[in-house]
Structures
1.
Amino acid sequence: MSKPRAVVLLSGGLDSATCLAIARERGFDPIAISFNYGQRHKSELLAAKKLAGLAGAAHEVIAVDLAAIGGSALTADIAVPKGGAHLGAAPAIPVTYVPVRNLIFLSLAYALAEARGAQALFIGVNAVDYSGYPDCRPDFIEAFAKTAALASKIGREGRSPEIIAPLVTFSKADIAREALRLKVPVQFTWSCYDPQLHEGFYRPCENCDACILRRNGFADAGYQLSKEEIFGSPLALA
Amino acid sequence: MSKPRAVVLLSGGLDSATCLAIARERGFDPIAISFNYGQRHKSELLAAKKLAGLAGAAHEVIAVDLAAIGGSALTADIAVPKGGAHLGAAPAIPVTYVPVRNLIFLSLAYALAEARGAQALFIGVNAVDYSGYPDCRPDFIEAFAKTAALASKIGREGRSPEIIAPLVTFSKADIAREALRLKVPVQFTWSCYDPQLHEGFYRPCENCDACILRRNGFADAGYQLSKEEIFGSPLALA
């Protein structure tokens, strides 16, 4: 008997790569979905492609032009914050927030789940270490599931896919442990918000919020890893 | 004092053009948003551009590749139903349903509202004459408003735009009356799902569900109109 399908949002980062491995472990045949949304750097898409291939998962890349909407350092020429001084302070919404990005991405992933007959939809959000993003919280995920069921043919027929956010209550150290337990090739994941482009390679900056959180996660979990495992390996420009 | 902004979803059809006029009447400065989503025919985008221009509204066209997701006669090579024999029967979801299209479009429109500081978001869905679409019903619109508020910076700050669906309980005849009351240039609206391309012009087929509902709406409202007003004028290919 063939395995049930699951759509997995795969950004190319540590969290979504771990989510992909969890979907596999739970017995699903995963279809990874990534978005070409006008992000300034395509490094995360290169990483997503590599990770889907290594996991033997189908990979679909959907274009959606969020850069035309704007309002974020990830799509417009706004400086990405460095040094992590504000991390751990009272949660504020960072300039890397893209307006309702996860609402848009989940909606597109739900459409793919409907079109491909998937029974589950995995998203690697977590609300703990980076709670400045409003669309990474459990209340949003629950509200989304109800709304999407009302918006869809499958939902009206009582066959809505389950929305699973397995990392939502995990700390970054918990995610690091889960990634290594599941043998996620962490050296090929990409988290950096501000890749340095040099001699045909993207290299992680090691100093943006995403790099710092990731480094701290591995350290808090007690791992001694290589620089490539901690921050991700340089990626050749496609 | 400048008027408050409103984002208005403008497909180029009769309903959304009427919605744009309602937003104006209610005192908003409208920003029309349309989607280049991989629809087989661009006639509705040409109509939307013309209508926004006539209304003096800003017009933003956002690309989102729903054709890559598939599952609909509007994006794939599936025959559009003709003759209207099934209309008025027990509501079934038609093959022109695009998986969670209004959820995706509303999410993108909400992002635009956030990025442009709009205080309202108008959508011309109606649940009466064409209730086969699950994402045109009031329960979906209400659930969406709650979910988007949870997903967004403006929502978490208590400044979520109001989601206004002024036509949701209207019959097609009510919409026809409202359009003519507000002097919507109905001859430049485009509803047809199956445009006939001939000698450099798109012409409405006059026989798909959208054409038939529109013709019946004007007739039920008691109007004697020209063929161009009833179905929309031929559109020159861009």
2.
Amino acid sequence: MPRIKFTVSYDGTDFCGWQRQNHGDKPSLSATITQGLKKIFDQEISLFASGRTDAGVHALNQVCHFDTTRPIERLKGFNLSRAMKTQLPSSIVVKKAWLAPDDFHSTISPDKKTYRYLILNAPQPSVFLTRYADWVYHPLNLDFLNECSKFVVGNQDFKSFQSVGTEVPHTVREVFDAKWEWRRPNIAQFTITGSGFLKQMVRNIVGTQLLLERKHLPATIMKEILEAKDRKVAGPPAVPQGLYLMRVYYPLDLDNRCLEL
Amino acid sequence: MPRIKFTVSYDGTDFCGWQRQNHGDKPSLSATITQGLKKIFDQEISLFASGRTDAGVHALNQVCHFDTTRPIERLKGFNLSRAMKTQLPSSIVVKKAWLAPDDFHSTISPDKKTYRYLILNAPQPSVFLTRYADWVYHPLNLDFLNECSKFVVGNQDFKSFQSVGTEVPHTVREVFDAKWEWRRPNIAQFTITGSGFLKQMVRNIVGTQLLLERKHLPATIMKEILEAKDRKVAGPPAVPQGLYLMRVYYPLDLDNRCLEL
């Protein structure tokens, strides 16, 4: 069966997250997109994504795949993005689609991912950013936050930054890069790239760094928290609306065998 | 009674407009803000604004005023912005407040207003801008749109750009400035400043200009439409979510007699 890979962008505000949660009555992104694909392809759909984003978290380029019973000749030149426009709310946009090789798997194949976190740093909140950024009113010390971020980079155990109740056995991940910068004079952005991320790991890292910054504690506490391998010693997660899944990287070999539709 | 002037910013998406409309079940901005003021001041409130914005239209600095029974001594240093934060949804933020002279009236006193209109000009829509901008996918010709805008500037009858069903007798207004420019490489912005605006006048002007641009019609048609003084010859209004009330200007003499709280 032909395998289709596609990228999708979404505003996570009005969804309960990628996957349905037990609580809440908002739809899941996964169910909403699957529903649209079912209508278009007139078949059952098993949809996979690079990972699950939490309720309120956004994506610029989430990567997904599914297999279709539609023969390959009827897929060439098929505009999935346009077809899905009629099926999806305006908060979800399919950006690009490819015919992917059988050994491509959106969840298993990634070798790295980039997330971004945005904070409005201004005396007053903005009505246009409440859905899209955290808000901190005291002037943020990005130099200090970058001091904290240095300890996050490397191949190490991130158990302290894994949210309770969702433990996975292997908590070692590699963070290649983690950096704060001013996106605009009053918007701070944190960009982090790693081999993979534990549940709420980015939000827990950001939340902990913000706590240290606000309380004027030494940046080296980040190191101590990592070494403790204990969620209880880290700070609370930063709010979900500031977080964006920016990009998922796959091995070049797999990318080269994907054919743009 | 002391008169309080304040500026307020709002995301108009989830409101039926400034004033309650007959249709729809969304709350009005006016009712939501009045409700908050009632709670804080524990009195009936007559709230006035510089003008009414339509459903879906945003404001960066709408100007309002009301009179309070609270004595002036208990208002000095009173932080209206902070007090209202507990009463309002995150889509409405009171920015600043002043003690205004008795002859200040937010609706009657303005001598000019600035509106802005945003358009995402890109092959695909953005999930983060559907609430905040119109979307045009073909590359916009801003030079042409600026040609059209020239005809709008001046002291003239804007009857052709007044929405039907809401006629006012005097349809002459002065537009001081109207200009298109690239806000970012893929976001076009139209900024218009005038002595006052008729119902949906900015959206009708933008919608008509976009129609002429899309259909490759001559810019001079703008002049003909103005001269016709007939709403039926103009184009449809541009969508409300692209429009922002940016600033309301009052005579310097009044501004100088307002005391910041």
